[in-house]
Design goal:
36% of the residues lie in helices and 28% in strands. With 149 residues, it is an alpha+beta fold.
Length: 149
């Protein structure tokens, strides 16, 4: 079932909850990351994403963040959905917002994250090239995707 959510700016007061969403999402989709790596990435996500990027979110009825997208046009830098809310169209709605309202046309996906790759390909992105390391220089290959013409 696809629901429609209002998209709003992520506020500094939302950062702890957004970081919880990030961690839960990573644990649900990034089974190639060990516990030490997840813990080492948390402060990087806080600093490089939540504090430095324009981040847009959707909230549940209690106003808790349940998904967010960070965009530095023309690139989606982050997209994370609370696993309890996956399958409700939140990711699709946030990507649509990023593309149509913010001019996003690029996104990077961990090569081992087949769920994310399939999701973006379903939305019209295609692999443009590959890197051996992630954006933090860690040995997790990235696929660089571009919105198909």
């Amino acid at each position: 079932m696809t629901l429609s959510f209002q998209i709003s700016n992520l506020k500094p007061a939302d950062h702890p909850r957004a970081l919880d969403v990030w961690e839960a999402s990573v644990r649900a989709t990034h089974d190639f990351l060990d516990e030490d790596t997840i813990q080492s990435l948390k402060p990087l996500v806080q600093e490089a994403c939540l504090e430095c990027l324009p981040v847009y979110c959707v909230r549940d009825d209690s106003q808790a963040v349940i998904g967010f997208v960070g965009v530095e046009s023309p690139k989606i830098e982050a997209l994370f959905i609370d696993p309890a809310w996956r399958g409700n169209g939140i990711g699709r709605q946030l990507v649509s917002y990023a593309v149509n309202e913010l001019g996003a046309e690029l996104v990077d996906v961990n090569e081992q994250n087949e769920q994310a790759l399939g999701f973006y390909q379903h939305l019209g992105f295609e692999v443009a090239h590959r890197s051996d390391v992630d954006g933090f220089g860690k040995p997790f290959p990235l696929l660089h995707l571009k919105l198909a013409e």
